[in-house]
Amino acid sequence: MFYKIIIPVFLFIVGIVGCNNKYAASNRSYKKQVRAFAKELKKQPGNIDSVLVASSWVGTTNFGMRKPNFVIIHHTAQNACDSTLRTFTLPRTQVSAHYVICKDGTVHHMLNDYLRAWHAGTGKWGNVTDVNSSSIGIELDNNGFEAFTQQQINSLLQVLKTLKKNYSIPTANFIGHADIAPKRKVDPNRYFPWQQLAQNGFGNWYDTANVKLPENFNAMQSLRIIGYDTKDSIAAIRAFKLHFVQQDSIAVLNDADKKIIYDLYRKY
């Protein structure tokens, strides 16, 4: 008698919880796509058209999953965390990120770190032109014109600590969306605490106290070596300042700016 009562009640509660999850449909879609990828991974390599394929398959024993090597930080440019979650669950938007961090510090891990999110778009850092394929995208709930909350930054630091440990991501490879797409993007905005991140091991920072510029120092070439796409020099300078000289938005380099670039260049 006990089980006849409890089991239906339990199933009813589970049903209610499922109905209350407004992202149940997109979660089902996520699982369906992951199963399709898993099925593809199980396939035996081979069957290449127009080449002589060996009669028997030999599979290597030496392999692993591809790991992210960069972390790209964004702001959502929306006014509520839930708006971003909805945007990332609508197929027509064609945009996503691995993590979304709300103003209260809540972390939404929306995509397995090994899968490719659509967060970077057209961008370039050094010789890397397909940033989505080698990076993790983190979105911070912020409309682009406000400071980030301390709860957000605390959660972000914890996420970055985990990512750096799990995937051995180099210190220099924690960068912003504007860094990789200076002509298109300005996120995270100038209130983002890059220096605090660098002090915790996520990204490089500078110390120009004893820096002396060499003669004929080429600042744009150094920016390119750091990683910036300098084809549009004005956009590159603005992106550099958004990250390292946040109080100055003028797309002109003075000697103080050049010293910063030179010190950063030496770290790369």
Describe the structure.
Helix 7 packs parallel to helix 9 (255-267). The longest helix is centred in the N-terminal third of the chain and has 19 residues, at 2-20. The protein has helices at 2-20, 24-42, 81-87, 150-167, 177-180, 194-199, 219-226, 233-244, 255-267; strands at 70-75, 99-101, 107-109, 135-140, 174-176. It folds into two domains: 66-199, Peptidoglycan recognition protein-like (Lysozyme-like, 3-Layer(aba) Sandwich); 206-268, no CATH class. Strands 3-2-4-1-5 form a five-stranded mixed beta sheet, with helices on both faces. The protein is α/β, with parallel strands linked by helices and 268 residues long. Residues 1-19 have low confidence and may be disordered.
Features:
single chain, 268 residues, alpha/beta, Lysozyme-like, 5-stranded mixed beta sheet, 5 strands, 40% helix, 8% strand, disordered N terminus
Map the helices and strands.
Elements: H1 2-20, H2 24-42, E1 70-75, H3 81-87, E2 99-101, E3 107-109, E4 135-140, H4 150-167, E5 174-176, H5 177-180, H6 194-199, H7 219-226, H8 233-244, H9 255-267
Parallel strand pairs: 1-4, 1-5, 2-4
Antiparallel strand pairs: 2-3
Radius of gyration: 23 Å
| Count of individual helical segments | 9
Q: Which band does the percent of strand residues land in?
A: 5-15%
Let me know the largest β-sheet.
5 strands, mixed
CATH superfamily of the largest domain: Peptidoglycan recognition protein-like
CATH architecture assignment of the largest domain: 3-Layer(aba) Sandwich
| Structural domain tally | 2
Helix/sheet category = alpha/beta
Please give the share of residues in helix: 25-40%
Identify the strand order in the major beta sheet: 3-2-4-1-5
N-end to C-end Cα span: 71 Å
Q: From N to C, what is the helix and strand string? A: HHEHEEEHEHHHHH
pLDDT below 50 for ≥5 consecutive residues: which ranges?
1-19
The CATH class assignment of the largest domain is Alpha Beta
